[in-house]
Amino acid sequence: MTDYSRGASKPSRPRRPHPPRRRTGPSRPPVEDPARLVALETLRAVRQRDAYANLVLPQLLRDRRITGRDAALATELTYGTARARGLLDAVIEACSDRPLSEVDGSALDALRLGAYQLLRTRVPAHAAVASTVDLVRAERGSGIAGFVNAVLRRVAEQDEAAWVDELAPDPDNDPVGNLAFSHAHPRWIAQAFAEALGSRGEPLKLALEADDARPAVHLVARPGEVTADELAAMTGGDVAPYSPYGVHLEAGAGDPGDLEPVRERLATVQDEGSQLCALALTRAPLEGTDDRWLDLCAGPGGKAALLAALVGLEGGELIAVEKAPHRAELVRKITSGLPVTVHVADGRETDFVEGAFDRVLVDAPCTGLGALRRRPEARWRRQPTDVGTLTKLQHELLTEALRLVRPGGVVAYVVCSPHLSETVGVVTDVVRRTGAEVLDTRELFPGVPDLGEGPHVQLWPHLHGTDAMFCAVLRRPARALGKDASDGV
Ligand SMILES: C[S@@+](CC[C@H](N)C(=O)[O-])C[C@H]1O[C@@H](n2cnc3c(N)ncnc32)[C@H](O)[C@@H]1O
Hints:
12% strand, binds S-adenosylmethionine, single chain, 12 strands, S-adenosyl-L-methionine, 20 helices, alpha/beta, globular, N-utilizing Substance Protein B Homolog, Chain A, eight-stranded mixed β-sheet, 4 domains
């Protein structure tokens, strides 16, 4: 039974709270709860200035020298709250006497943080409520604190499953809506997953569940510098199941940037799915020259570093193109010492001559729906209207890649999204326009199970433990490209 110690009375539906008031009384001692304070500040930055939680939080932790258990708690609370926002908001609204749009922004941040602890952590209910209310009181005074207290007490009356039963769409009438609600995904994203999986049942449930869990950190060992076995021994991680260069660290194992092999640039953080897609490009059989590779959308450079290390072992070179100057700088940094030339340019309008490259990677800008585990607030920020703009750019970049690769050369088209418009839709249309040959990409993912009917590869967190990366490998035919090839879309 919920413990309402700290002298609180039985929870009841909140009455209309007082308007925000400036504190006028004697100043209160600062709240000694560094983990929840940085969580709250990060959630505020996400709400107020569209910040990225996974950039703001690590910086705050460093600035305040928060480490160990406090850092782990702050990370769990911040990312968990940001991920579950839609579900939390529905419960908060059901417990409040007003629509969320009328709730003070900082009260809403605190309510989300408190509701997350109540519904999705083992923090005792009284501690979740009291610690959240204390933070609000210290910052905003007792009027808003009273409102937050009252709402959280109502939230605490039921567990997550009971709230889902009460508030989620009926599973018989709207199975996708029901799963979306209970796994804290916007409906349109759950629908996109359902279409890619061909399922509104168990596979969709497993995919959403995996997408809602905290992901393990994956490292990639730099080829020629260290093996995956050595890297695993150095970091205490496990050798990855599919990538010969991959190592998995335990979820929440601390900041991987602090690990010696990462500091020494023997390894970098990279999802195993990304490693496999970059490797698929290198594994496609090729006749003739094979020493000039192109990465057409290179920033921040994870795949460029892996490709450059591999082509460098054979005496070749990688050309990396990136449109955003600051991201091109990141590519320069991560690939320094490797045979790479970085160009700041639009990949659709480079100066390269037609057919200049043997292999080309198009790791195209995308919705990122396949990496929602790693970008906690992204699912609530992305809009269905983003898809159309991106697919146009994806078409144009893939078409240009097929022009820049030599006849007989190969292009890997990769997106971190399972959305069919960004994946099969783009590839099918470009293949139709250009006459490019579609390779059975599954053969370029040796040892990886559950790759479906092909010819393209769609990875999934629940099947492969990777981000939901899509990869299609195409070959430029020896004859001229289709007449529409240079028209784009
Ligand atoms: C999915 S990210 C690439 C990730 C990268 N390959 C890696 O593994 O680190 C897509 C990149 O394409 C860049 N980009 C967007 N539009 C572009 C364009 N027209 N030409 C070249 N790069 C572009 C974005 O700035 C972004 O850095």
